[in-house]
Specification:
The complex is a heterotrimer of chains A (484), B (95) and C (486). Chain A is α/β, with parallel strands linked by helices and 484 residues long. Chain A has 16 helices and 11 strands. Chain A has an 11-stranded mixed sheet with strand order 1-3-2-4-6-5-10-11-9-7-8, sandwiched between helices. In chain A, β7, α8 and β8 form a beta-alpha-beta unit. The two termini of chain A are 12 Å apart. The mean pLDDT of chain A is 97. Chain B is of the alpha+beta class. Chain B is built from 3 helices and 3 strands. Chain B has a two-stranded antiparallel sheet. In chain B, a hairpin with a 2-residue loop joins β2 and β3. The two termini of chain B are 35 Å apart. In chain C, a hairpin with a 5-residue loop joins β7 and β8. In chain C, α9 runs antiparallel to α10 and α12 packs across α14. Helix content of chain C is 40%, strand content 20%. Chain C folds into 3 domains: 297 residues, no CATH class; 112 residues, no CATH class; 58 residues, Arc Repressor Mutant, subunit A, CATH 1.10.10. In chain C, the strands form 4 sheets. In chain C, strands 1, 2, 7, 8, 11, 12, 13, 14 and 15 form a 9-stranded mixed sheet that branches. A 3-stranded antiparallel sheet of chain C has the order 6-5-16, with no helix packed on it. Classes of the chains: A alpha/beta (484), B alpha+beta (95), C alpha+beta (486). Chains in contact: A-B, A-C, B-C. Chains A and B meet through α9, α10, α11 and α12 of A and α1, α2 and β3 of B. Zinc ion binds next to loops of chain C.
Chain lengths: 484, 95, 486
């Protein structure tokens, strides 16, 4: 590994501007890391040719002074973002030959800012999973693994692993129930899921439309601020995109936390919470307190019901969103004598087990006779969970919680595989945020006794990502976490 | 609300997925486990709660009635597993 | 109106019918995408990535489709709902690229309304509208190009539809037919749908049940999908009602099912039974927030509303002296009504109406012309009627003049002038002709005087003939009798 690939995005931009190295040199260095890092299985598709062309263009722009905000920064793109003329699979067999004739709005923003795309990153199939083990292209390996291979978290596992192992300078992710924050925590890096409506969903393969949001995964808080600034913005093509100005997030990094009230939800500290997690949580609060913030216990009374609510709503939307993968217009097609046989064979062979499970659960909770008992009930619970946060934000500016109750676990963990609910429980601290549509950031806080990273989560008011960057930057400074 | 084997088959068909006969029982068990877990939501009385459909309580924007897309036949058919005479082709549909 | 009762040896039955009509919205682009709504183009040309249901594509709502729907709702005298919601209706079908249809379910844009239909016996009947919602159309499957394959064309996929659902208010095929004609008339007046059933821009599903006369039960209904003409809708009701009655009278039961009416046999056959029916799993469309209309918006659309057939008909009856029947016929089509009003301006409206309903429409029919292509302009038809009213020409001459007008498109005044067709009302000139006729027919004069007074008519005919039809018949009549009786 060459030293330049350990630079943050901010450091890299400075070096490129100062002509310390060229964008082509930089891209080649990352391509070299990718080649040597294939054991992580982080990339589904590498696109060296495209990347080098983009890097050449970047170098020209540095020379003629027309360099843009992310000129020459080599990024990895979660393979859920449609990229024009570059295969986009959603880590599914059913899309493994799909080449979109269009570009997602978020990746278009990045391209418009001069970013270089190194390739498409592995994920859980259709982003359904918390360990990256449901990918048709095989599991991603957490770079923090020691004796046994560990999961990187999911669903943006390829993104988190690639950033941690310096296989890209930063990456895009998507987060439906924790898919940016959990892998960021497991891999000792930083990620932010912005407010619902902040980033356009146009061109992102949909999992659960009312919960999905794109966001950056990067080495540190500043890099997330730089990337989110580029990725976010109003888009007419997405009717749920909000027309609210995107501030300069970097400018929040220098603000003080003095006077801010930090809420600690008591429901996130259940009996039996891992003492290491509890200790880091307290430590993070102490850092902020020492800097003049007020620490306040708050209550989010319906927290206990967030997971069950999520596991009704997300599969329901997914069952409908994934109906289009039927073998007719694109993607994998299996034979079938009649149309229904073709549908059934295509979908049964094309989708993996977890995706099939969620489609069927989703179909069930929407079906005649069960809609009110499950789907409508969950929508009402979602209102209560949303109201919990709105009430809490009357008393505090930011909410601080752990990102996950656990650290990265081994690939193929029996208890997780045998009971899907055990896997679902890992999302306990993250899903409420998606249900309420709020912004939330995860950053590393320290290592477990076994040497694996823990993450802290900051939850903000709608469209107040700036305050998250402000507070996160302070914790980051004080925690002095040593990244991989 | 426990589900039975027939429901599993019906849900699979509605989803256009196949479950091998020998896996129906296990699938039913698994579904019932998940559904049981979900039923903890019934602990909360939600009779007077409005369902939440859209988090950013925005209302729908409307687009001007102008033609700005289409005429991209090649791109539309490019990924099709089977296309003939500029149509998508499927096994004969009989009502 | 005359009741429609089906009488058998075993009893008397009445039909109960409700209609669901899908009307394609007139707009340039599709309801949720910006591809063109043009038809007749090559396959899959007017298709965007959204219409093809590509991964990551999102719907955006066309303003004009909402505008057209609100206009139509107002035209149906219906409540416009300020809050409405889009939902997904989930089912797998080759024509439906996302395998769900974006439609409205719990909260449609238009609520209850009513329209009045005119029946052949001169009565009118109120038909209730249950609701109207907007949704996207599916693509088309082509089955006859390949023996083992169907081909999918998505040009129509995503075109906006208005689905109008009536209450089960129809009690006869005639009422249903009259409703469809009235609905089509309203849609065309408004310019919100072209109403062509044969081209599929208006498609009708018919729900039929029967019950013994005097009962108010609602028995099992069967739905016949996509019946594609007014005539077939009427036939379908009749034959389906008879089928139900036969089943009931033989001790059977009718099952709720979807059927297809075959106009060649006049019978319907089953498409699918209820137990295999879809479970559509409707839920609110998460890609589209709720649609909220303001009072100001609805008021602004109200302000654009034009006079619709019922109001126009009433005005024609009340202020222009037309019979209800003439007014109804003239108002069914907006172009006819406008032509009439233009022609009648300043002239005898009733006479203009008579001319339109007889010679004028007959001429268009014969020439297979649309009223907008008529060689006789509205102004010239008015002038022709004026020439008759002021006795410049007789009704008989007028027919000849109209004949010329329909060939040349000329002004009737000019034709009458150039051909010297003006009616003779100068009594001196007429007397001269009468004297000639009397003088050259002494035998008939004698016979008249001996009591054969009906010969007066013969003398009148001779005089008019000699005048080449120009002599005013009333004057001739009067003078002939005076002279013969002298
Ligand atoms: Mg389909
Ligand atoms: Zn419909």
């Amino acid at each position: 590994m060459t030293e330049i690939t350990t630079f943050s995005v901010a450091e890299t931009l400075k070096a490129l501007k100062n002509k310390e190295f060229s964008a082509v040199e930089l891209t080649k260095a990352y391509l070299h890391n990718m080649e040597n890092g294939r054991q992580y299985n982080a990339y589904i598709t590498e696109c060296a040719d495209v990347a080098l062309k983009q890097a050449e263009e970047a170098d020209k722009r540095y020379i003629n002074g027309t360099n843009r905000a992310l000129e020459g920064i080599p990024l990895g793109i979660k393979d859920l973002f449609c990229t024009k003329d570059i295969r986009t699979t959603a880590a599914s067999h059913i899309l493994d030959n799909f080449v979109p004739p269009y570009e997602s709005t978020v990746t278009q923003h990045l391209l418009d800012d001069g970013a270089v795309f190194l390739g498409k990153l592995n994920l859980d199939e259709f982003a359904m999973g918390g360990s990256n083990e449901t990918s048709y292209f095989g599991p991603v390996i957490n770079p923090w693994s020691k004796d046994k291979p560990l999961v990187p978290g999911g669903s943006s596992g390829g993104s988190a692993a690639a950033v941690a192992a310096h296989l890209c300078a930063a990456a895009t992710g998507t987060d439906t129930g924790g898919s940016i924050r959990e892998p960021a925590a497991f891999c000792g890096i930083t990620g932010i899921k912005p407010t619902y409506g902040r980033c356009s969903r146009y061109g992102i393969v949909a999992f659960a439309s009312s919960l999905d949001q794109a966001g950056p995964i990067a080495q540190d808080v500043r890099d997330c601020a730089i990337l989110l600034k580029s990725m976010a913005g109003f888009d007419e093509k997405d009717s749920t995109s909000c027309n609210i100005t995107v501030p300069d997030y970097e400018s929040f990094l220098n603000r003080e936390v003095k006077g801010l009230t930090i809420g600690l939800p008591k429901e996130y500290r259940p009996e039996g919470l891992n003492p290491e997690v509890a200790a880091y949580w307290d430590k993070a609060a102490e850092y902020l307190k020492a800097r003049g913030a007020n620490i306040k216990e708050i209550s989010l009374p319906h927290t206990k019901y967030a997971l069950a609510t999520y596991y009704v709503l997300a599969p329901a939307e997914a069952s409908s969103n994934l109906a289009r993968y039927d073998g007719i217009r694109y993607g994998f097609r299996a034979d079938g004598q009649h149309l229904d046989d073709l549908y059934i064979n295509t979908r049964t062979q094309g989708f993996g087990a977890e995706v099939r499970r969620r489609i069927m659960i989703g179909t069930y909770v929407l079906s005649a006779g069960y809609y009110d008992a499950y789907f409508l009930k969950a929508q009402k619970m979602r209102r209560l969970i949303h109201n919990d946060f709105m009430n809490a934000f009357k008393e505090c500016d930011v909410i601080l919680t752990p990102t996950s109750p656990i650290t990265a676990f081994p690939i193929g963990d029996e208890s997780m595989l045998q009971n899907p609910i055990n896997m679902y429980l890992n999302d306990v601290f993250t899903v409420s945020v998606n249900l309420a549509g709020l912004p939330a950031l995860s950053l590393p806080i320290g290592l477990s006794a076994t040497g694996l990273p823990y993450g802290m989560q900051l939850i903000g008011k709608p469209f107040d990502e700036g305050t998250l960057f402000n507070v996160a930057a302070k914790i980051e400074t004080d925690a002095k976490f040593e990244r991989k | 609300m426990a589900i039975d084997n027939l429901t599993v088959k019906r849900i699979a068909f509605l989803s256009r997925l196949k479950i091998e006969d020998e896996k129906i029982e296990a699938t039913k068990e698994e579904f019932n486990k998940i559904l049981n877990w979900i039923e903890e939501l019934n602990e909360i009385d939600t009779n007077s709660v409005e369902p939440l459909i859209s988090v950013n309580d925005a209302t729908l924007r409307m687009r001007e009635d102008v033609v700005t897309s289409g005429n991209c036949l090649k791109d539309i058919l490019k990924n099709a597993p089977s296309a003939e005479y500029d149509y998508f082709a499927v096994p004969k549909v009989v009502e | 109106m005359a009741e429609y009762i089906i009488e058998t040896t075993k009893g008397k039955w009445e039909v109960v019918v409700g209609l669901e009509i899908h009307c394609q919205i007139i707009s340039k682009s599709k309801i949720f995408s910006s591809a063109s709504t043009e038809f007749g183009d090559d396959p899959n040309v007017n298709v965007s990535f959204v219409d093809a249901g590509m991964p990551g594509m999102l719907p955006t709502l066309n303003k004009e489709c909402v505008h057209q729907a609100v206009k139509t709702g107002l035209g149906l005298n219906a409540k416009i709902n300020k809050y409405s919601e889009f939902s997904r209706k989930n089912y797998f079908y080759a024509d439906m690229p996302t395998d769900y249809q974006i439609t409205q379910f719990r909260y449609p844009i238009v609520g209850e309304g009513e329209i009045f239909v005119d029946l052949s016996d001169g009565s009118t009947k109120k038909i209730g509208i249950e609701r109207m919602h907007i949704e996207q159309d599916a693509g088309k499957s082509i089955h006859d190009l390949n023996p083992t394959k169907s081909y999918i064309d998505l040009n129509r996929a995503g075109v906006g539809l208005m689905e109008i659902v009536t209450k089960p208010d129809f009690r006869s095929p005639e009422e249903a037919g009259a409703f469809l004609r009235k609905l089509r008339s309203i849609l065309r007046y408004l310019g919100t749908c072209d109403g062509n059933m044969d081209e599929g821009s208006m498609r009708c599903d018919v729900n039929v049940s029967v019950r013994p006369v005097g009962s108010d039960e609602l028995r099992t209904r069967c739905e016949m999908k996509n019946v594609n003409s007014v005539k077939f809708v009427m036939q379908a009701i009749e034959s389906e009602a008879k089928r139900h009655i036969e089943v009931y009278e033989n001790g059977g039961t009718i099952e709720q099912e979807t059927r297809q009416f075959d106009p060649t046999t006049g019978q319907s056959k089953v498409m699918r039974k209820k137990e295999f029916a879809h479970d559509y799993r409707y839920f609110p469309e998460p890609d589209l927030p709720p649609l909220v209309l303001t009072d100001e918006y609805i008021e602004a659309v109200k302000a654009e509303m034009i006079e619709l057939p019922d109001a126009k008909k009433q005005r024609f009856i009340e202020t222009m002296g037309l019979t209800p029947y003439d007014a109804m016929v003239l108002c069914e089509n907006k172009e006819n009504a406008e032509f009439f009003e233009k022609a009648a301006a300043g002239h005898d409206a009733k006479k203009v109406a008579n001319w339109m309903m007889s010679d004028f429409f007959a001429m268009l029919n014969k020439k297979r012309l649309d009223i907008t292509q008529s060689p006789v302009s509205a102004e010239n038809l008015g002038r022709l009627v004026e020439l008759i009213s002021t006795e410049v020409i007789s009704g008989k001459i007028a027919k000849d003049v109209f004949e010329i007008m329909s060939e040349t498109g000329e002004n009737p005044e000019k034709i009458v002038e150039e051909k010297g067709l003006k009616q003779v009302t100068d009594t001196g000139a007429i007397e001269t002709i009468i004297d000639t006729v009397i003088a050259s027919n002494p035998d008939n004069v004698t016979a008249y005087k001996n009591g054969k007074t009906n010969l007066a008519g013969w003398f009148v005919g001779q005089v008019i003939k000699m005048s080449q039809g120009k002599a005013n018949p009333a004057i001739v009549n009067k003078l002939v009798r005076e002279k013969l009786d002298k």
